[in-house]
Write a structure and sequence with these properties.
Chain B: This is Iron ABC transporter permease. Chain B: Keywords: Cell membrane, Membrane, Transmembrane, Transmembrane helix, Transport. The complex is a heterodimer. By secondary structure, chain A is an alpha/beta fold. Helix content of chain A is 34%, strand content 27%. Chain A has one domain: 3-Layer(aba) Sandwich (Rossmann fold). In chain A, helix 3 packs parallel to helix 6 and helix 5 runs antiparallel to helix 6. Chain B is an all-alpha fold. Chain B has one domain: ABC transporter involved in vitamin B12 uptake, BtuC (Orthogonal Bundle), CATH 1.10.3470.10. Helices cover 74% and strands 0% of the residues of chain B. In chain B, helix 2 crosses helix 3. The radius of gyration of chain B is 20 Å and the shape is globular. The chains are: A alpha/beta, B mainly alpha.
Chain lengths: 275, 327
């Protein structure tokens, strides 16, 4: 067992965003979190990484509640690739990625290794950023920024990797590159990976398990072939569509046909009510 | 290049400062030898050198404190005098001496009062800015500084007789400081400079925002409070020595970050450049005082260094704004 939530709930301003989430992510698994905007995917990721304290319920890492671990202890186990780079003027790629060493090295350790830290250089090399290491972040292209975010998370050398929309704002080629890279790293380092994804086809092709969130609750959870169905498309995403099998990669592909006039389905009894 | 250039600048400014105070190379050698005998040599040892050390320590403290405030609060305009910490420290010292709680010449009493006042000023800013972003912190800092300034005025009105002596200190001055004033500052400021340097990783990570810091293993609020604590320790000591020196803590950190490559160099550069700025300002103040008074110095007091830093700092700010508008 690796990461487990029990009755995890979170609300904001009296409005419940997530309610009663029971989820277990085993060591070495690759899980995709899917759902419409506002379904609580990013909130769940932030709760799982302990950045956000839960309203109720617990998150356990190897049986130990995150609430009883220090921030640094958590960061040594869990690395998060956020949606945006920190807006620090003048920061270079290498300096950013080197910050990923903080959980492992602490402030004094980091003073000893500026510019020649092996884990930093490895993360730069893996993401193909070695040649851009001295560039200032503001001057990077969208794809390069994405890789810098990934490199920062890799430099933490954590065994659990959370990716929050790692392919947002990327063209087709760069999307594939990032997802392929994550898959290779996962195989090489035995990582556990949880990814928030919008593209269902990517989720089907690059992960073993899809968790579909709908209105703050888990709507479906299982292998892509079981989760991705026309019913899911209509209930969760509010579109009429078909699901076919890709002949080469042997995974389901979703073909959305039209938005449903009624939108996504109303809540099931277990999900929180709105308002 | 920076590694050679900045220390060289420090030595040159120090020599300039001593010679502006009227010291000759011969006096310096005699003092270095440990045997100040003539009047000039004793003036150098008992007045010139403590004044130089005061300016260097206070300048270094303000430069580094400004850097800590700007990075941890994520605001380029955060500075000791704009976050109510320096005005609070000044208020603390003034209140303590006005009410006779500490002697004006007690190094320990002055530092203690400045610390209490600095924490008060910082806490006012912290409370006013609670829940807001980096922009709100600046407004809160300005409000807090205005409040501290108002209370200082209140104290002056309470005891108008002291106005003349206090005014110089309110502008910021290192004149008349002797070794007895420095017994604590000579270890206190270097100690906190070292702590600030050791915390480099913390301040640079905080600069990336709360979410960034939290996922890298820093509790943002706690870490920010710790960094602000280091800044207050430095500012309070600087204020107890030199009063309300303005602009050093605002302008110097920007220059230091521009001149150095990695984050590891920021604190040392801010310390050295802060020292250069205040020592240079005081040297200029001494030279200007002579020009104004003619050759005869007599018993007149000199121009406070704070006037020079305020004028030079304002000029630098105008230049920065102008350059950003017309690149």
């Amino acid at each position: 067992m690796s990461l487990r939530t029990l009755g995890l709930s979170f609300g904001h301003g009296g409005r419940p965003l997530l309610a009663g989430i029971d989820l277990t992510v085993e060591k070495g698994e690759s899980v995709a979190l899917v759902g419409v905007n506002g379904s609580g995917k990013s909130t769940l990721l932030r709760l799982l990484s302990g950045v956000l304290p839960p309203g109720s319920g617990t998150v356990e890492l190897d049986g130990r509640p995150l609430a009883r671990m220090s921030r640094r202890q958590i960061a040594r186990r869990i690395a998060v690739m956020h949606q945006a780079l920190p807006p620090v003027p003048g920061l270079t790629v290498r300096q950013l990625v080197h910050q990923g060493r903080y959980p492992g090295q602490g402030p004094l350790g980091m003073l000893r290794t500026p510019g020649h830290d092996p884990a930093t250089e490895e993360a730069l090399a893996l993401t193909g950023l070695t040649g851009l290491a001295e560039r200032v972040l503001d001057t990077l292209s969208g794809g390069e920024r994405q890789r810098a975010r990934l490199a920062l998370a890799l430099a933490q050398e954590a065994d659990i990797l959370f990716l929050d929309e790692p392919t947002a704002h990327l063209d087709i080629r760069h999307r594939l590159e990032v997802l392929e890279l994550v898959r290779e790293l996962r195989a090489a380092r035995g990582l556990t990976v949880v990814t928030v994804l919008h593209e269902l086809d990517h989720a089907a092709r690059f992960t073993d398990r899809i968790v579909a969130l709908h209105r703050g609750a888990v709507h479906a959870d299982g292998p892509p072939s079981a989760v991705l169905t026309p019913d899911l498309l209509s209930e969760v995403f509010g579109v009429a569509g078909r699901v076919v099998i890709d002949e080469i990669h042997h995974h389901p592909r979703c073909i959305p046909d039209a938005p449903l006039p009624t939108g996504p389905a109303e809540n099931r009894s277990s999900a929180p009510s709105r308002g | 290049m920076t590694r050679v250039f900045v220390p060289l600048l420090v030595v040159l400014t120090a020599l300039l400062h001593l010679s502006a105070g009227g010291a000759e190379p011969g006096d310096l050698l005699a003092v270095a030898d440990g045997r100040p005998a003539t009047l000039d040599e004793r003036i150098l040892w008992e007045l010139g050198l403590p004044r130089l050390v005061t300016a260097a320590l206070a300048g270094a403290a303000l430069g580094v404190a400004g850097h800590l405030l700007q990075t941890s609060l994520r605001n380029q305009l955060a500075a000791p005098e704009l976050t109510a910490v320096n005005p609070g420290a000044v208020l603390g010292v003034l209140a303590a001496t006005t009410f006779g709680l500490v002697s004006p010449d007690s190094a320990l009493g002055g530092l203690g009062a400045a610390l209490l006042g600095g924490v008060l000023g910082g806490a006012v800013t912290w409370l006013l800015s609670a829940g807001g972003g980096p922009g709100r912190a600046v407004i809160a800092g300005l409000l807090g500084s205005a409040l501290m300034g108002g209370l200082v005025t209140l104290l002056l009105a309470y005891q108008p007789g002291r106005f003349g002596n206090v005014l110089r200190w309110l502008v910021g001055s290192v004149e008349g400081r002797v070794w007895d004033h420095l017994v604590i500052a000579v270890w206190w400021i270097p100690l906190w400079l070292c702590v600030a340097w050791a915390a480099t990783a913390v301040t640079t990570i905080l600069q990336g925002g709360d979410q960034h810091a939290a996922s890298l293993g820093l509790a943002p609020r706690r870490a920010r409070l710790a960094v602000l604590g280091i800044a207050v320790a430095l500012i309070a000591c600087a204020a107890s020595l030199a009063g309300a020196i303005a602009f050093v803590g605002l302008v110097v950190p920007h220059a230091a970050r521009r001149l150095t490559g990695g984050p590891g160099g920021h604190v040392p550069a801010a310390a050295l450049l802060g020292a250069v700025a205040l020592v240079g300002a005081d040297a200029s103040a001494q030279v200007l005082t002579r020009l104004i008074a003619g050759t005869e110095l007599g018993h007149r007091l000199g121009l406070p260094a704070g006037v020079i830093t305020a004028l030079a700092g304002a000029a630098v700010l105008v230049a920065i704004v102008y350059r950003e508008k017309n690149p």
